[in-house]
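Please check this today:
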Amino acid sequence: MSTEVDFYELLECERTADDGTLKSSYRRLAMRYHPDKNPGCGESEERFKAISEAYDCLKDPQKRAAYDRYGHAAFKQQGGGGGGAQDFSGFSDIFENIFGEFMGGQRGGSRGPQRGADLRYDMEITLEEAFHGKASDITIDVSGVCEVCDGSGATKGTAAKTCQMCKGHGKVRAQQGFFVVERTCPTCHGAGQTIADPCGNCHGEGRVEKTKTRTVNIPPGVDEGTRVRLTGEGEAGLRGAPAGDLYIFLHVARHPLFERDGTTLFARTPISFTTAALGGEVHIAGPDGVDHQIKIPAGTQSGRELRQRGAGMPVLQGRGRGDLVIQIEVETPTSLTSRQRELLEEFRATETGKECPQTSGFFKKMKSAWG
């Protein structure tokens, strides 16, 4: 990649996302940006390559661990070749981790039990629900606190003890020649504590799989991709650690009449050629349930846009509303009665060319161009 964009940002995931979330997000984005679906679009092709590179790294546990610790610097080539300048950015953090004690760094405290993972839930709503907002119940399968041991992971009447291997730090250091290497404690797996008598219900983790129902309050004015956060409703933390968060990603279903751009609503509106010529009005039923009456000026042409102020979508977490814009399409009649045809023939017989200046002007230019 020519630019070092964060891999998690490319995959639209939190850094605590589990393998399943990463895989699901990658598949969704890969389908969106695949070159076969976007022929000739160089930007989509580059985006597809970028998300593929990001997923290839993060799906591998060892590569992901290295990336989480050192970022893109973990995969930079070191050494000669080509005589070009080498990029050593980011290596100050690596040296601090390796030589921490020799360079005056302080040894970190106990990591403690790990915070629960954040979860993602995709919800589809209608345009009308996006307009008015709604409260919706969702049901998810998630790790919750074990009620038998109250999340401690230990059998009732017992307690976790400080890990003797790492002395509660969650990390151990080993000297290999000149280097001092720090890694996660293999005994407590970074928790800093061990459990001699684990809870039989959760097997020492302090959490079990549960089915939970939660209410999601969707505010008026939400748009495609709006994210609603439910704090503490994600995966339960290990052995009493804080729970992660639950993120609700909203997807607004396609509407048969309206298209949306921010707070502005667009509607392609066909009108008869007599209404276009003589003027009139149309009635548009908005997502607010109101019948909006829009006047059509005489002589309106196809493609003209007429705007109704304040008849669009509400401003998210704000005041006011956007506009409703109708895009006029003048429809030519395809089935005429004999009387209608007779009237149109009479009209054509009276035409002077001034009625349709664009048409007469076009043919005058054509005649002039060809002498």
Q: What stands out?
A: DSSP finds nine helices and 15 strands in the chain. The longest strand covers residues 134-145. The two ends are 58 Å apart (CA to CA). Residues 77-110 have pLDDT under 50 and may be disordered.
